[in-house]
Amino acid sequence: MGYLYGNIKCVGVLRCWCVEVIRFAKQNTTTRQHNNTTTRQHDNTTNMNINLNGKNALVCGSSQGLGEAIAHELAGLGASVMLTARNEAKLQKVRAALPSPNGQQHQYFVSDFTNSEDLKSKIEALVKKQNIHILINNTGGPASGPVLTANVQDFLQAFHNHVVCNQILVQATVDGMKADRYGRIINIISTSVKQPIPDLGVSNTTRGAVANWAKTMSNELAPYGITVNNLLPGSTKTDRLTYIIEAQATKHGLSAEANKENWLKAIPMQRFAEPEEIAAAVAFLAAPAASYITGVNLPVDGGKTRSL
Ligand SMILES: NC(=O)c1ccc[n+]([C@@H]2O[C@H](COP(=O)([O-])OP(=O)(O)OC[C@H]3O[C@@H](n4cnc5c(N)ncnc54)[C@H](OP(=O)(O)O)[C@@H]3O)[C@@H](O)[C@H]2O)c1
Q1: Which residue range forms the structural domain that includes residue 287?
Q2: Residue 165 CB burial class (10 angstroms; 0-12, 13-18, ≥19)
Q3: 61 Cα: distance to centroid of ligand 1 (angstroms)
Q4: CATH number for the domain that contains residue 164
Q5: What is the count of structural domains for the chain?
Q6: 178: how many CB neighbours lie within 10 A of its CB?
Q7: In angstroms, what is the span from residue 176 Cα to ligand 1's centroid?
Q8: What is the pLDDT of residue 23?
Q9: pTM over 0.90
Q10: pLDDT tens, 131-178?
């Protein structure tokens, strides 16, 4: 009898122990750290963590267009945003309109990417005061035109503004990302990385260089859990699109409206993107939820790019 009672007691203890082990394993899974960069939060109400509370974002080229829309999206998700571009009055206006769901502060500094020494000293001064966790590399696109007639200065200027300035910004911010174990570098490039666009010779060439720079950088920073990705916007309703369509129309003796119709016909969704549609994809890549995505070129183009 005593032997039987002892066995029953043993089974009971073993059962309790198993229940505890399973409960502990479940807790551990839900709070497991990935690449030391983020804590995934799975519960009954949220499936993916896109919260940017406590993150500092630097959004370049943010006085208008895609940069402005991206700044709005990141701020709405809780990030403290630092804006930069050349036009101070526009930067002030954009900053005043940014949402602050956590009461976070947004700031700006004026920069001109044609002056990389000035940019370097400003970004180095900034990171002495605060770490940047999310870097959005973005600036005005190069002038349009065929590649054959482009001059040397056009190529040098574009390479400088897009590749050299990106390099300066990453070099200045990466130590802070490593220290805070959170880093997202997102480059706004173009679908021309996958399919060159006619009449954008210098741009097509430069975007390819940025994509290769970014892929190389993504491999070097992956061990730190810092991701580097490229967002390839399709035709999006900003001043840049108006400029390209009008320049091409003039060259081909078309009206801007007729040329616009031609562009729309080439897009399976038969419409241009809203800047907010680009910004939403950027915000996802910037979020904790995108911790295992790095080194990719993500087209957001309504299906325009014909390649896989
Ligand atoms: N919109 C599209 O359909 C589309 C498609 C594919 C790729 N892209 C590319 O995506 C990027 C952003 O496009 P977007 O449509 O937003 O263009 P956008 O409306 O012309 O805005 C460009 C932004 O960059 C800033 N900027 C321009 N030159 C600068 C300089 N030298 N130094 C610092 N900031 C400078 C501008 O501000 P300030 O004038 O105040 O400096 C502005 O905030 C561009 O590279 C563009 O080519 C756009």
Answers
A1: 58-300
A2: buried
A3: 6
A4: 3.40.50.720
A5: 1
A6: 16
A7: 26
A8: 44
A9: no
A10: 999 999 999 999 999 999 999 999 999 999 999 999 999 999 999 999
